[in-house]
Amino acid sequence: MKGHKTLYLRLLYYVKPYGRIFALALAGTAVAAITEPLVAALIKPLLDGSFVEKDPYLIRMMPLWLVGVFIVRGIAAFIGSLGMEWIAHRVVMDLRNALFARLLALPTRYFDDHSAGTLLSRLTYDVNQVLTATTQALVALVRDGLAVTGLLGWMLYLNWKLSLLAFLIAPGIATIMRVISQRLRRLSRELQDLMGELTHAIDEVLQGHRVIKIFGAQAYERQRFNRINNRVRQRNLKLAAASEGSGPLVQLLAIIALGAMIYFASLQSAAHQITVGGFVSLFGAMAMLLAPIKRLTKVNEQLQRGLAAAETIFALLDEPPEPDRGAGTIGRARGAVSFRDLSHRYRPEGPDVLEGLNLEVQPGETVALVGPSGSGKTTLMSLLPRFYEPHGGDILLDGVPIRELQLAELRANIAYVSQDIVLFNDTVAANIAYGAGFQANDADLVRAAENAHAMEFIRQLPQGLQTLIGENGARLSGGQRQRLAIARALLKNAPILILDEALSLIHISEPTRPY
Fold it and tell me: Mind spelling out the 3-state secondary structure of 167-211?
């Protein structure tokens, strides 16, 4: 329970900036809840005063009071619900922004260890589950909690002896809710993990559709997806069974208490210890308890789903960002790079990918690293921008250990074209301008494209530099994609340019020059 409270308090921290609207929404919800016992309270004077005592004042005023109560109830409920929805969607937006910002700050190794589908599920499915915990659950807890409290209070006021029967079911309800809550939380966690697997399976098919087609793996992928999808269905069914099962059990206890109250109230009525209006008002209040109690049992599912999602969301938000312990600045470097006794392995228990490497690169010098696959060429190129931290040795830039430099300072001096070309679903111009932080003018873009020998095909595109190239440059050839990536790197005009097999798809008969 302590963990539940901590999670909910942390969620409410995101509500804090919208405190005034939150207070207004809570007030509206509270007013709407108060009208529940008020309706039950009006039944007594309606029957005793209007029908039994024939009071002319009550005969005139009771209809107006009833209409007024329901008008106030409708307006208050509208304000409460709309206010909570507004806050919930703001909280979801803030959480998504925070998650996205954290993803941008996470180290490369985190992405090596977690699938894209799982991370996508955190930003989509899990955040949407939090929406239920911050709106429907909270509204129901406030509205129905106050309604139950008010109705019980009115019942105690009318006849405290009979009303005590309602409290006898409280331990049973608490036991049911505790057992169901534990199961709901566990099933919700399992469902979130499965949704991550489902998203990952979809992402792999979208990314690898050509491989799937050429190797005829459609049937295999369908079966794999169906297995995961069926497990999602099964978990949803178990979740629904756990949620729906609590409602009838709680209602059964309430009906037993209601039956006992009716029996003893009938005995009191026969002994003239309770009026007709008091009996009907008491019975009505007890009957009105059933709906909010049922909703409170249903809200438990929403709350457990939201809290389970909040656990995974906050776990991601609590992941440490990429270490940036360097405090040094270097401005624009000359470009002298030294690798001294450099060693690296990707896992503590794994083999060394690099061991005792020494290399000196002077400013303006072009160095080609040649070796078989797996010999550590890409690893070496990944250590220079500090995508990974070496296990041993040092890398120096202009004589300064790169670990002593701020990451932004270090990476500002490096342009990088990887063997896995990454382009964005935008225009040609926007993809090239990425290298200058989108600050370049058209002349700069054209110059970079010409130096990368990309302008020839760019001029042939329908809108030239303003042509949309599709996801990851899907509308371009492999060589064209590589030339755009090279143009982007050249536009950055950094002292160090890393080309990691960046010319592998460019035909040897095409014009080339050293970059």
Answer: HCCHHHHHHHHHHHHHHHHHHHHHHHHHHHHHHHHHHHHHHCHHH
Distances (CA, A) of 373 to 150, 376, 388, 475: 74, 8, 19, 29
**Helix 19-45 vs helix 56-105: crossing angle, to nearest 10:** 150
Q: How far apart are CA 273 and CA 255, in angstroms?
A: 23
The long-range contacts involving 247-250, CB below 8 angstroms and separated by at least 24 positions, are 247/294, 247/297, 247/298, 249/176, 250/173, 250/176, 250/177, 250/293, 250/294, 250/297
d(CA 164, CA 257): 10
Alpha helices per DSSP H over 106-135: 108-113, 116-121, 127-134
Which residues are CB-contacts of 410 (< 8 A; sequence separation ≥ 6)?
326, 330, 385, 386, 397, 402
C-alpha distances (whole Å) from 187 to each of 135, 182, 350 are 21, 9, 36
Q: What is the distance between the alpha carbons of residues 142 and 270, in angstroms, rounded to a whole number? A: 38
Q: Could you tell me the pLDDT band of residue 505, with boundaries at 50, 70 and 90?
A: low
Residues linked to residue 359 through DSSP beta bridges, in sequence order = 339
Are 228 and 199 in contact by the 8 Å Cβ rule? The answer is no
User: Which residue has better confidence, 511 or 413?
Assistant: 413
**59 burial type by CB count under 10 A (0-12 exposed, 13-18 middle, 19+ buried):** middle
Mean pLDDT in residue range 21-36: 88
- Residue 396's pLDDT is what? 93
Whether the Cβ atoms of residue 281 and residue 239 lie closer than 8 Å to each other:
no
Q: Determine what percent of the chain is predicted with pLDDT higher than 70.
A: 92
Here the tokens at position 97 are: 């922004």
Beta carbons within 10 angstroms of residue 384's beta carbon:
20
Q: Report DSSP letters for 52-106, one per residue.
A: IS--HHHHHHHHHHHHHHHHHHHHHHHHHHHHHHHHHHHHHHHHHHHHHHHHHHS
What letter does residue 318 receive in the DSSP assignment? T
Q: Give the three-class secondary structure for 344.
A: strand
What six digits make up the tokens of 214?
């050429």
Start-to-end CA distance of the chain, whole Å, equals 61
pLDDT of residue 20: 92
d(CA 341, CA 334): 22
What gap in Å lies between CA 151 and CA 38, rounded to an integer?
8
Q: Find which of 150-154, 161-165, 451-455 is predicted with most confidence, using mean pLDDT.
A: 451-455
What are the chain's domains? 1-158+302-319 (1.20.1560.10), 330-402 (3.40.50.300), 406-514 (3.40.50.300)
For residues 278 and 292, give the distance between their C-alpha atoms in angstroms, rounded to a whole number: 22
